[in-house]
Amino acid sequence: MATFPVINLEKLNGEDRAATMAQIKDACENWGFFEVLNHGIPHDFLDTFERLTKEHYKKCMEQRFKELVASKALEGLQAEVTDMDWESTFYLHHLPESNIADIPDLTDEYRKLMKEFALKLEKLAEELLDLLCENLGLEKGYLKKVFYGAKGPTFGTKVSNYPPCPTPDKIKGLRAHTDAGGIILLFQDPKVGGLQILKDGEWIDVPPLRHSIVINLGDQLEVITNGEYKSVEHRVIAQTDGTRMSIASFYNPGSDALIYPAPALLEKEADKKQIYPKFVFEDYMKLYVGLKFQAKEPRFEAMKALEPTVPIATA
Questions:
Q1: DSSP H or E run through 233
Q2: What separation in angstroms does the CA of 102 have from each of 92, 99, 113, 246?
Q3: CB 278 within 8 A of CB 312
Q4: Distance (Å, rounded) from C-alpha 93 to C-alpha 199?
Q5: Which residues, other chains included, contact 191 with Cβ-Cβ below 8 Å and sequence gap of 6+?
Q6: What is the β-pairing status of strands 6-8 and 33-37?
Q7: Contact 204, 197 (CB under 8 A)
Q8: Phi first, then psi: what are they for 230, rounded to 5°?
Q9: Would you call the peptide bond into 263 cis, given omega within 30 degrees of 0 as the criterion?
Q10: Which terminus, N or C, of the chain has the lesser number of Cβ atoms within 10 Å?
Q11: Structure pTM?
């Protein structure tokens, strides 16, 4: 079985740059996921952030989750549950406007660190998008520009905890899906696993690695690359032991951004037709909300039927 790609970004600065870029290219083309080490975010910062996230769950979220489990009668499941996930979550918005100040129950220290974390991940996301541009032969900054829209990109974080589950065969931590947006950066538990991706018809574990960030590509990058890069189905398997922390940050296009295959890629491959639609990101998200846990292909087909008449500049 192929080994899940783990890439040392430090090697971009030196004689191993070409080999490292080739690793990133292969991961984008054949996996849709990869894990990065030495990404520029200090280890002690990540350790503190992990500690505060776990403390917040224990203090503010754990009891609520237990009450939810009791109210939904999820304790001793006999039949499979397909309309719920075994997870405790809250969401934060960073761009275009932050709501961190409005989230209740966060300590001042955690709130401050969350803002710093968002800035560090925003920077990493934009650096990674430029690496993707380089591998695709697109001009530097192209993907960021496409994502920009009128007010800049949309950026937010989903903070999840997956508590121990007595019946992991009956309910998923998170049901299988592809991500709707752009590039996703995940800081996950260094010990408790559960994240899996679908590759060549098999579910493959994404290994927990301390101080790593897991990267995956969303549906929008599949469209912009005209299928050269793919968004990949993934899920979280509930575990009987240990609570798994998952902090996923989504660097997405602005709501009014127009998404379409990059003209430069279509010109480069003259024999390859445009097979993906052109649409406004917000319209895709409206469709995605109701169809998240279904195949992505019908979503793309539905967007083709709604294609706007906005002309695409080829310059």
A1: none
A2: 9, 5, 15, 21
A3: yes
A4: 31
A5: 208, 242
A6: parallel
A7: yes
A8: -125, 145
A9: no
A10: C
A11: 0.94
- The owner of tokens 């294609």 is 307
Residue indicated by tokens 């695409």: 312
The answer to whether residues 293 and 174 touch, using CB atoms and an 8 Å cutoff, is no
Owner of token pair 């079985």: 1
* Structure tokens, 31: 């996996």
**Tokens 């401050």 -> residue:** 112
Please name the amino acid found at residue 140: K
> Which residues does residue 250 pair with via DSSP β-bridges, in sequence order?
156, 184
Q: Which residue has the tokens 């469709």?
A: 287
Per-residue pLDDT of the chain (315 residues), as tens digits, is 679 999 999 999 999 999 999 999 999 999 999 999 999 999 999 999 999 999 999 999 999 988 888 777 677 777 898 888 999 999 999 999 999 999 999 999 999 999 999 999 999 999 999 999 999 999 999 999 999 988 899 999 999 999 999 999 999 999 999 999 999 999 999 999 999 999 999 999 999 999 999 999 999 999 999 999 999 999 999 999 999 999 999 999 999 999 999 999 998 876 678 889 999 999 999 999 888 999 999 999 999 888 755 555 544
| CA distance linking residue 17 with residue 131, whole number of Å | 11
